[in-house]
Amino acid sequence: MTLRKHIRCALLGLLALAPIAASLPAPPAWALEEAYQRDRLAQEQRLAPVTTEEELIFDLKNAVILPSENGPILYFTMTVENNSGRQKSFLDYWIRIKSSAGTEFKAELLPQDKLKKELPAGQRMDFSFYAPINDAVELSDLIFTIIRWNYSSRSLESRVGDIRFPDDAATVLRGAGGSQTLSFGSFQVDAEVTRLNIQPKETYVTPKLTLKLTNKGQSSLKLPGLQFALRTPGGAQYPLEPAAVADKVLLTPGVPVDLQLKGAMIPSSAASGQEVWDVIISQTVTLNSDQKLNYPIAALKVPLSAPNATPPGYTAEYTNADGTYRLQADKLSRMPWDDQDVLAADLSLTHGEANAMPFPELKAYFMLDEGAKVEAKIIRTDRAVGLPAGTAVHTMLAAKIPYLYPFDSVKLVVQEKTGDQSSQDMAQFELPLGSATLPSVALGGRQPISGAGRKASFAPRAVHTYIDDNSKLFEVQLESRNEEKRSAAVPKLTAFVKTPDDQLFPTKLREVKQRLNPSGKALQSFTAKLPMDMDTSGLKLVIGESTTDQHWTGPDEKPDGFLNAVEMALPAEATEVKPSLKNVAFFPYQISLGHVQTWLDRKELRVLFRYKLEKDSYFETNTDGTKLVIEFEDIKGNVKLSQSFFLETAPSTDDKKLELGEHDTKLTWADPDLVFLVEQLKQYKLSVYSELQGKRKLLASQKVDWFTILD
C-alpha cells in the first residue's frame, strides 16, 4: 500500500470517530420548507454547483431533514459529473456539513454508494449521504462544503467550494410539482400521488391515497421493500400502509400501476392544510448488523387537484389481498316511497386481473351535508357468483329518508367489511344533486330492466277506470317483455299513481308468476283507489323494480322498496261505449254476442245467446278479480238484472264462467213479479261490462227488440 493510501485511510478512520451532536429523544416538528428537490426547480432557482480544477461538477440534487427515534437526520444526494477526458477518483473528495453557527456534522455515505469509487469520463453519478444533526438546525442554515484531499497541505485537505442556500431560502426550498423519478439501480420509475380520500371520524381523520407508479425501463421490475409516510404541515409523520405488499408489486414497462396507501388516524388539528401534505417514500438501508436506516428516496407533494372524493363517472381503485378492484358510481336517484323517499346509487365493480375475483362484502352509507349519516342497503342487481375478468358487476346502494328532508350535498362512502365490527373504506363519491330526479319515459317509450339474467322491458298498454256508487278504481295495464335468451321470471315491479300536483297513490299489483320464454310477454295490472271526483286525464305512473331486504323481490315476497324508478306517461283512456255487441275488446280478451233471444212468463225471464270468446294467447296474464258482466235492462228502466262470469276458469262448479271459443248459454232470472214490472214489451237493452274488484266499466250496449233474434 502506498503512503498516500495509508494517510487517506488514517484520515477516514479519524473522521469516523468524530463526535456526533446530541439529539433530543422526542422528534421535533419540522417546517415543510425544509426540503430541497433540484429536479422540481426551475433552472434559475437551483443552487449554484461547485466546479473543481479537475472539471468535476458537484450539484446538490436533493436534501431533507426528517425526524427519527434518535433525533433529526439530514438526508441529501450529491450528483457529480465528470467533464474531463479521463476517469477520476471520487475517493479524492468528501462532503463536510456545517451550520451557519459553526456546528459541524458528519456525513456518511450509504453502504451501496461506498462502492462507487471511480467516475468515468463524461458520466454523472449520484452519491447519497445521511448525517445526524441537532434539533436547532434548519435546512437553510446548512453549508455543504466540497473537500479535496491535499497531501501537500498541512491540513491534508483543500476546500474546493460551498453549496449553500441564499438569504431568501424560501425561493428555492420546496419546489412545485407532485411527480418524481425514483431510481432502483438502472431502473427509473415515475411516481405521483393522484388521489386523496379523507374519512372524517369525530376528532380525527383517516386518509387514503393513490400512488401512481410507471416503469420507464425496458423490462419488468419488482419494487423493493418500501416504507410510506404522510407528512402534515407541522412536520409530523404518520405511517401509510400499502393495500398490497409493495415488494410484490410488479411494474411492467410503460404500464401505470396504482398503489393504494391507507393511513392511520390523524388528529383533526394536525390534518389541516392538506394543500401542503407530503408522501415520504423510504427504503430500508442496512448500515451494519445492529443498525438500519429508512432512507427517504422521494417526497411527493399531494396535489391540490387530488380529489377528496371521486366524482360520478370516474373510477376509484381499492386493493386488498385478493387484488385491485375498480369502483364507479354512475348515478344518484331520489324516488318516492309512501311517506319516505328512497335514496339510491348504482355502483359497478370491475378489475384488471386475469382471473375472476371474489365479490367483496360491502357496506355503505350516504353522508348528507357532511353531517347526516344514513346507512344504505347493498342490493346485488346482477346474477353473478363473483367478478369475472373484463366484466362489470352492478350493485345498488339504497337508503330511506323522510320525503320532505332537504339537503344540499351527498357523499357516498363504500366500505369492505373486514370483521364483525370492522370495515375498510374502499371509495368515496361526491354525487351531484342534479341527478336526484326521476327520469321521464314519454308515451310510447319502453323502460328497460338491466342486469345479468334479468334483462326485460315494460311499457303501459292501456288504462281503465272502474266505478261503483262510492269510489273509483284506476287500472294501468303494463306490458312486460323478456329480453333474455332463456326463459325468465317476470321482474316484480312496484308502482304509484302520481297526480299533476305530486300526490302519490299506492297501487296493488296483479302479479304474473309464469316464466316467460325469450321475447315472451306478460300483462300485469296495477290498481289504485282514487276519489270519485278526481280527474284521471293527467295521471302518471311512478314505477320501479321491487326490492325486499337486500335482494330483488321474489314471487311470494312483499316489497319494502324499489330501485331504478321512472315516471311514465300514460295513454288516454278509451271511454267510448261500443254500440254493438260484436267484437267487444277487453284486452287480452275479445267477445262477440249473437243469436240473442228472450223468453218471459210469470215465473222467470230467460235470455239465450251464443258467445265467442277470444284471447291473445301470446300474453301470460293474471285474471284474478276480473269478470265479465252481462246486464239486462228494460227500456223503461224498471228491471235491471245482471250476471257475472269468470273468465276461462271458475272457483267452483256453481260459478258461471265463459270459456274460450264459441258456445251457447242462457241467463235466467226467476221472479214472479217480473211480468208486472215490464210495462211494455217493445225493447230491452243488453250491456257488457268489465268488472274488477267489484267495480265496473261499461264496454258495449245495444238495444234489442223483444221476441226477436239478434244475430
Which properties best describe this structure?
single chain, 711 residues, mainly beta, Immunoglobulin-like, 5 domains, nine-stranded antiparallel beta sheet, six-stranded antiparallel beta sheet, 2 helices, 53 strands, signal
List the helices and strands and how they pair.
Blueprint: H1 3-16, E1 35-37, E2 50-51, E3 56-66, E4 73-82, E5 88-89, E6 93-99, E7 104-105, E8 108-109, E9 118-119, E10 124-132, E11 142-149, E12 157-164, E13 179-184, E14 187-201, E15 204-215, E16 221-222, E17 226-231, E18 237-242, E19 250-251, E20 257-263, E21 266-267, E22 278-288, E23 291-301, E24 315-320, E25 323-337, E26 340-351, E27 362-368, E28 372-375, E29 377-380, E30 393-402, E31 410-417, E32 423-431, E33 440-441, E34 447-449, E35 456-467, E36 472-482, E37 493-498, E38 504-506, E39 508-510, E40 521-530, E41 540-548, E42 551-552, E43 561-569, E44 584-586, E45 589-600, E46 604-615, E47 619-621, E48 626-634, E49 640-647, E50 657-658, E51 661-670, H2 674-677, E52 683-692, E53 695-705
